[in-house]
Amino acid sequence: MARLDASNPVIMIDGRSGAGKTTLARLIRMRWPRRERVQEIALDAMYPGWDGLDAGVDAAREQVLVPHARGLVGVWRRWDWEVGEHAEAHAVDPALPLVIEGCGILTPATARLGDIRVWVEAPAAARKARALGRDGDAYRPHWERWARQEERHLRRDAPEALATHVIAVP
What we know:
Layout: E1 10-15, H1 21-30, E2 39-42, H2 53-69, E3 74-80, E4 85-92, E5 98-101, H3 108-111, E6 116-121, H4 124-135, H5 143-157, H6 159-162, E7 165-168
Protein name: Aminobenzoate synthetase
InterPro entries: P-loop_NTPase (IPR027417)
Organism: Microbacterium aurantiacum
């Protein structure tokens, strides 16, 4: 059941690259109905490189979602894409709401840790135009490589079926 009434709800947003996950996460955080601060994590900051979709999701589960569910402070390290290694650490307060977005976040192992689970769907051409418009030449040579990891996630984890909400973006 989708719950926003928990004192520290977790909202997970999954979808393929360019679907609109980051925009939706930002809108949720900015329009949060209560006074407390909302923590927002983009898995783009956790994936360890272009082949790191699964490793980034595993790190999010172990370092952020599980501690948050247990009422413990989670600590994750940002991936520095320019240097190709982990950088500074970030703490996640278990007493505060959390919005976490990124391709791969909805899996059978993570779904039970989310109060609201969103799948964002968008047409392939629109997604590619948005993603390459946003990240340009840095992403262009890796588009197909990343798409293969997304497709593996879709086949293995069926994220849309784990979602409490499905949003279609043109």
